[in-house]
Amino acid sequence: MFKNLETALLQPWPRIWLQEIDSTNAEACRRIARGELGPTWIAARSQTSGRGRRGREWLSETGNLFTTAYFPLERSPAFAGLVCFTTCISLRAALGELGVDVSEIQYKWPNDLRWRGRKLSGILIETSPLAQDALAMCVGVGVNIISAPDTDQKTACVNNLPSAASSLSADGLLEAFAECFKSELISLLTNGFDQTRLKWLDHAEGLNETISVTVGAERISGILIGLDADGSLVMQMQDGQKRRITAGDVQLIAD
After folding, report:
1. What is the pTM of this model?
2. Which domain holds residue 215?
3. Of the candidates 186, 202, 218, which is a domain's last residue?
4. What's the pLDDT tens digit per position in 125-175?
């Protein structure tokens, strides 16, 4: 094991492409269990059991990007949730570097990229304990590049965006995204969450608008006014009080 786990992040991150796998996150977890800590990217041409947040199925159509970064981190499980915001920022930046007009791509709390209210990408973060104050992290990302699955959500794919300069490939997007992610992750570790929080809020879907959040059996409506220091959603309720949301499903009232 590394004497300082975070020094591992400065070394090259290999890319491993697989033809087919159950899910890239599952494969990353298996490799961690065997003592392979990374940092490494796993990507697959197709997944047979892709999954998203809260155990939801992720439809894995060939030509889209399915990838997981796994790496060690000397941080608490609470900190690991902040990496989701870093991932969103990195993916949007990578698309911009590849010629996509990202002006209408926004972040839906806590883990989606959306274009005009349609889902482009989802993120699934899982952790495994390594030792005291150390984690192995799996950051799974699915991106609709050439096709948008038919689901209960509105979806879109990158290559159908009217502003796409040229057709993107999963390979090309992974290369750009991996470099952006590494840079943003090191920034988060070095500078703390505040800079990341402000970047995320710059393109947050529904900011200063009325949203509803389903938390368990409760449905809450209020105005999205920001993010707390731990990544919690902050809403202003009808009575003027502020409420922090640590987990839930967000919807714009207009959706």
Report:
1. 0.92
2. 210-252
3. 202
4. 999 888 778 899 999 999 999 998 777 789 999 988 876 556 789 999 999
